[in-house]
Design goal:
Helix 3 runs antiparallel to helix 4, helix 4 packs antiparallel against helix 9 and helix 7 packs across helix 10. The chain has 2 domains: 191 residues, Gcn5-related N-acetyltransferase (GNAT) (Aminopeptidase, 3-Layer(aba) Sandwich); 176 residues, Aminopeptidase. The strands form 3 sheets. Strands 1, 2, 3, 4, 5, 6, 9 and 17 form an 8-stranded mixed beta sheet that branches. Strand 12 and strand 13 form a beta hairpin. The chain is α+β, with helices and mostly antiparallel strands.
């Protein structure tokens, strides 16, 4: 389900046809590929020299296609016969509407299309209109392209799709500036308190047995950490009364394949960490490496007798310290505003939303998405209303309204 919307970017047909003048057509072209083998091969070739977000990596895209078997397409822009930008999209249905979105839907955050930035055309609006025209021609059933949670820039390079009208995503992304290293980070406000809390957490955890941080370095370790994470998430989502986005077997297979494949890379683009206490995994995080950023893609804890000792917070402390040691400039907690993130973060990353209707029906659907996005943003930006919504949700599934929410950090 599409969860946000943006100002409608209108496809100007007169401009699209006008740009097919000989001088432009000789340099710029677009294609759409729907056959898995050909699409993945071409995309992998571009990714060898392109920048992209983790959820637009060749590994992410190829594994999602292989495991989840979506209705998909990869739209590619060429300059002088060289692929310079490609967007993998999966097509989903929402009632009578057909929507093309980033591959993997809600699992894809901080999106940035694979782009060879040195070769991108200067006239990106005209070039991307040509790409949209190619999609509309090859897939006339698609009503709208919905590009959610776009990263505004990647290591100082602007997102190509933000030449179109956009709006702020209703869900903020929080991050930590790691400039100066971990010691400098602990000199900031609350740094001393963080150190004391970490030592206190360690003492509490050790009363339940030996405490060990794990990095998955073998396929069996990947499977063990992900199995633990899926169980944690299943319990957490049931408690919250919301659908488990990790529940589908094919989604779980995708993440296993993604993290196992990463082990064969010189520097793994995706990495799992776990905190084991007394021989039991109590917290798990899954992260991606993206340029100068280490991104926490997901995380959870076991909601048991150790939850009060904050095993998640303990693991995040060590993850952030290691990110500093490895030379990252930013530790990105990704989408979602939670107290345990605010405890660390000094950066807010405002993702953007772009809607590109391809049909009249798509324009109507886009308008509805805009209204829904405004309502979502209003609720989430109003703490009193947001807490009320959470209490109503818990009451609906029979929980006490006085029971605190389970947090990833405990």
């Amino acid at each position: 389900m599409i969860d946000a919307a943006a100002p409608v970017a209108r496809l100007d047909q007169s401009k699209t046809y006008a740009m097919n003048a000989a001088s432009f057509e000789a340099r710029i072209a677009a294609s759409v590929e729907c056959a898995p083998d050909a699409a993945v091969t071409g995309y992998l070739d571009l990714c060898q020299r392109a920048v992209f977000a983790p959820s637009q990596s060749a590994s992410w895209v190829s594994n999602w296609i292989a495991e989840c078997k979506p209705d998909f397409l990869i739209a590619t822009l060429y300059s002088d016969d060289h692929p310079v930008l490609a967007v993998p999209l999966e097509v989903i249905s929402a009632g009578p509407f057909r929507i093309a979105q980033f591959m993997s839907g809600r699992h894809a955050n901080g999106n940035f299309p694979a782009a060879d930035l040195e070769r991108l055309p200067k006239e990106m609006t005209r070039s991307l209109n040509l790409l949209l025209e190619a999609v509309a021609s090859r897939r006339p059933d698609i009503d709208v392209i919905s590009l959610n949670r776009l990263l505004p820039e990647l290591d100082g390079r602007p997102n190509p799709f933000l030449v179109f009208p956009s709006s702020v995503s209703p869900n903020v992304s929080l991050a930590v500036d790691l400039a100066g290293g971990f010691e400098a980070l602990l000199q900031r406000p609350n740094g001393v308190r963080k150190q004391k809390k970490h030592r206190s957490q360690g003492r509490k955890l050790e009363t339940f047995g030996a405490c060990r941080r794990i990095e998955a370095k073998t396929p069996s370790e990947v499977i063990a950490l992900l199995d633990a994470f899926f169980a944690m998430k299943d319990a957490r989502f049931r408690k919250m009364g919301i659908a488990n986005v990790f529940a589908a077997p094919e989604v779980r297979s995708f993440f296993v394949k993604l993290f196992v494949d990463a082990l064969s890379e010189p520097t793994a683009p995706f990495v799992l960490h776990g905190l084991e206490v007394g021989g039991t995994l109590r917290a798990v995080t899954g992260s991606s490496r993206c340029g100068s950023r280490l991104i926490c893609e997901f995380g959870s804890i076991t909601d048991d007798e150790l939850a009060h000792a904050s095993p998640g917070g303990f693991l995040f402390f060590d993850n952030i310290r290691e990110a500093c040691e490895q030379g990252f400039s930013i530790y990105d907690f990704s989408v979602g505003d939670e107290p345990y993130k605010r405890n660390w973060c000094d950066l807010e990353i405002q993702h953007r939303e772009v809607l590109l209707p391809l049909t009249m029906k798509g324009r109507a659907f886009a308008f509805g998405l805009q209204q829904n996005a405004r309502l979502t943003a209003y609720i989430k930006n109003n703490p009193a209303i947001w807490q009320l919504m959470k209490r109503v949700r818990r009451k609906a599934i029979g929980q006490s309204t006085n029971q605190p929410d389970s947090r990833e950090d405990g």
